[in-house]
Write a structure and sequence with these properties.
- The chain is α/β, with parallel strands linked by helices.
- Helix content is 46%, strand content 15%.
- The chain has a 5-stranded mixed β-sheet, sandwiched between helices.
- The protein is elongated, with a radius of gyration of 18 Å.
Length: 186
């Protein structure tokens, strides 16, 4: 997809969902949406909101990796505890102490993802839409969004550097749709 490409029906649905979520989230917000689900959101700092939402997207994506799905945890372990281990493993946020605790609770040996595998898998994510409640004033939001599989950006437009945003979208082959609607909720 590029700046002028037509938006598919599914991407339109994702964009509308993202706009509803952004409307009722404190500004500054961006929302990542894929397949009718909000998969990450971030807020307050202009660039931090994109980074925070992107890290949530990456964890959501990594949770689907077989090495995360098939961690051999005891059947007697509580569902929420199993989920917490999967999320921490998917996010790559286990401390050394947590890693030792997890390994000691396994029912058999298990090969965990190496950093290179994690990076490779993360780069396979695609089809994500990003909705911003306000205009994106700098290209760094687009650069970060591209690292998280974003193929469609929905924003009101109107930034002084709108042409830079459009150029960044073209460079990353991201479709850009401008609504003219600011969804700020202060």
């Amino acid at each position: 997809m590029a700046v002028g490409d037509p938006i598919s029906r599914n991407a339109t649905i994702d964009a509308l969902l993202g706009m509803v979520i952004a409307r009722y989230t404190q500004s500054n917000s961006v929302v990542y949406v894929r397949d009718g689900m909000s998969i990450g959101a971030g807020q307050q700092s202009r660039i931090d909101c994109t980074l925070l939402a992107g890290s949530k997207v990456r964890t959501w994506w990594m949770r689907r990796h077989p090495a995360v799905q098939q961690i051999p945890l005891p059947a007697t372990m509580a569902r929420q505890q199993r989920l917490n281990w999967q999320i921490s493993t998917a996010a790559g946020t286990l401390t050394p102490a947590q890693s030792r605790e997890l390994v000691s609770s396994l029912t058999r040996s298990h090969r965990f993802l190496e950093k290179a595998e994690r990076v490779s898998c993360a780069h396979q994510l695609a089809g994500v839409s990003l909705v911003s409640d306000g205009y994106l004033p700098f290209r760094d939001n687009i650069d970060v969004a591209a690292e998280h599989g974003v193929e469609l950006v929905i924003e009101p437009g109107g930034a002084l550097q709108s042409n830079v945003i459009a150029d960044a979208c073209r460079e990353h082959r991201i479709t850009l749709a401008r609504t003219g609607i600011r969804l700020f909720h202060h």
